[in-house]
Every structure is written in C-alpha cells, then in structure tokens.
Amino acid sequence: xxxxxxxxxxxxxxxxxxxxxxxxxxxxxxxxxxxxxxxxxxxxxxxxxxxxxxxxxxxxxxxxxxxxxxxxxxxxxxxxxxxxxxxxxxxxxxxxxxxxxxxxxxxxxxxxxxxxxxxxxxxxxxxxxxxxxxxxxxxxxxxxxxxxxxxxxxxxxxxxxxxxxxxxxxxxxxxxxxxxxxxxxxxxxxxxxxxxxxxxxxxxxxxxxxxxxxxxxxxxxxxxxxxxxxxxx
Length: 233
What we know:
Layout: H1 9-19, H2 25-39, H3 46-53, H4 57-60, H5 67-81, H6 91-108, H7 124-139, H8 144-167, H9 173-186, H10 193-203, H11 213-232
Helix pairs in contact: 2-3, 2-5, 5-7, 6-8, 6-11, 7-8, 8-11, 9-10
C-alpha cells in the first residue's frame, strides 16, 4: 500500500493493520489447508503459515493453541467437503456417492488420507460424517458387527486408493504411456514376460486410466458386503 499523504510512519502502520483481513481460527485453519495442499503437511510449520497469512507467528497462537489443534481443524475441513451418504436412496447407492466424493476430496488434499482417522479430538464435521455413514449402513439392514466390517473395509479401500493415486508418477494419457514405454524398454528381453504383456496389451491401449479401477474395486466391495450381510442375517 502506498503511504497516505501527510501521515507518519506510525500512522501508516496503523492504516495497514486496519485494512488487513482479521485473523480468526477459521482463517488459520483454511490457510493451513491451502498451504498443506501446496507443500505437504510434513513441511507445514507455524512460521510458514504465518508468512502465508501475513501475520507474526505468535499471533496464530492467539487463535489456536498449537499445531495439533490446527491439524485437527484441517482434518475437519476435509471431512466437511465430503458428501454425506444421501438418505433418499438404497445403502449401496448412498455409499457409492459418499465414497466417490471422498476420493475426489482426498485427491484435492493428497496429504489428508493418512490423517483422516488419526485425530483423538475430532471436530463436528468429522463426527457428523461418521454418524451419517453408520446410519446409512444401519438403515441398509446391517447388524452392528457387519456395520463395523463394512465401514472398516470401505474406508481402507478409499484411503488406500487415495494414497496410491497420490503417489503414482502417472495414471493416464501420454504421461502414463511414456512412463510404461520407458520402463518396458529398460527390462531385459524375455525376463518379465507377464509384465511386458500387461503393459503392452492393457496399459498402453488407448483410453487406459488407472483411476477407473476405483469404481471396479468399490463395486466389488459393496457387492461382497451385501452378500455377506444376507448370509449373516
């Protein structure tokens, strides 16, 4: 901001402070989410967050007590972005919609998957999400035990797929084709016939997209859970 004509340096500082966006706990948390999206949660520090928010590090502690509280809030923000399973459809359709949304949200926040179930002081969005998923399964006729099995299995698949998707060097298109071709070219001739076959006859075929495996795997799990629930009554 250009100095205001006729003001002293102290007065100008007061003008600058007055025009800043006020710092709030919500702004701290959302700033931390954006920073983690850019640099990863392991690289997130209070000092870097303060620079991002254009405040002094100690100012952040006036709104959140420590980094763990910030991470609690970050995880809660991620849960708030995932669709709750709708109540106006069958449980499989509801869980499919919720699971697809979870995968999309985790793709936007690749740091989040390992932290989603790690918090000992979960926020309201986290608790609401868990309650809604449990309610969906119970409305679908699952016993308490089968509900536990289903929730654990579905989320293990979602989080595992999200981690794999986030770390793969490529998943589709020209980048995937170039990667597969370079890897195949580096293999000794005849040493890995099944890997070469899979690469040339599947991965390098037009339209290949690793991400499509998510829908196949999710349907397999939901169908298996439905069959298991019927067997157990």
